[in-house]
Amino acid sequence: MTPKAKILIVDDEIGTRDILQQILKEMKYDVQAVANGYKAIEIIKEEKFDVLITDIRMPGIDGLSVLEVAKKIDPDIEVIMITAYASLKSAIEALRDGAADYLMKPINIDELKATLRNALGKQMLTRENRALLKSLKEAKEESDHWAYAVGVIYRLSENLRYHHDFREIAQIVLDYLSQVVDFHLGTILLLIRKGGKVVIKVNADVDPSLIDETISNLLKEVNSLTHREVKLEELSVDVIKGDNIELKGEKREVKASFILPLTLNETVIGGINVVNLERDSFGEVDQKTIYAVASQTALAIESHKR
Questions:
Q1: pLDDT digits (tens, 9 = 90+) for 12-55
Q2: How many domains, in total, are found in the chain?
Q3: CATH code at position 58
Q4: Which of 55, 76, 230, 270 could crosslink 11 through cysteines, CB 3.0-4.6 Å?
Q5: Quick check: bond before 59 cis, omega within 30?
Q6: Count of other CB atoms within 10 angstroms of residue 4
């Protein structure tokens, strides 16, 4: 069900104000009415309205001033001016200042309906265009992000050719991955005949227990995939800290975690995990990057075994 448009009426003449309010309520709009510009501005600061209908000539703050302030508070609000013939020049000035339209007194109901319909249609079109532009911008940013990620992945694959030690491979992988994916803890686990090797890169000042928790979660996932029962104490762990990280931070909640197995010839040999403490999820480009990096990591480990 489409929500009713919210309309605010501003007119110091109680007769005009009450009649407009009654007509618009009968038209099923959500309507509020106030007697002066001061009150109108106060309400617009607190609530979101689709349309403002204001008289031009009012004591205190006139309609043109209400129009100016309302548009600053909410650029999306559509403003319809009410004018008598004597203030027609001001109504035309209001159109130049961003008003959607004006109505002459006495107000004709059919003209009121048509003017409202046009104002709301214009508003809907503006919002749809803005949403479209935003989606296009996000798509371009995502495309640019992926293009950058591909470059990083290529440079990683070239660099890994010159390294054979697991710790070096894991550190390089996590360093390159952090250029594309925003993570606070990144972990790579390699299973060996007895136990396993772990390298974890820490990019945030966290409580040390979070490191153990992150490794434990990755180990649990890898154990379930390999049907092994490697214990935490059977792991050789290297902790790589970012600059100025002292591991004295408070225990923080994990917002997003992405775990992916490292596989060779359909055999799980370990896993990779990235954790973010601020974002709720990893985006599509992040996940594609992690998949590609996991593949490069497994290939580098296999080359080392040879």
A1: 999 889 999 999 999 999 999 999 999 999 999 999 999 999 99
A2: 2
A3: 3.40.50.2300
A4: 55
A5: no
A6: 12
The range of the structural domain enclosing residue 245 comes to: 163-305
Going from the C-alpha of 149 to that of each of 44, 79, 197, 290, the distances in angstroms are: 45, 46, 27, 10
Q: From CA 119, how far away is CA 255, in angstroms rounded? A: 42
- pTM for the full model? 0.59
- Domain match, 93 and 206 both: no
Let me know the angle formed at the C-alpha of 118 by 87 and 37, rounded to the nearest 5 degrees: 45
Residue 184 has a CB neighbour count (10 Å cut-off) of 24
Chain position carrying tokens 């390298």? 199
183: left (phi over 0), alpha (psi -120 to 50) or beta: beta
| pLDDT (tens digit per residue) in 229-262 | 999 999 999 998 877 777 777 778 899 999 999 9
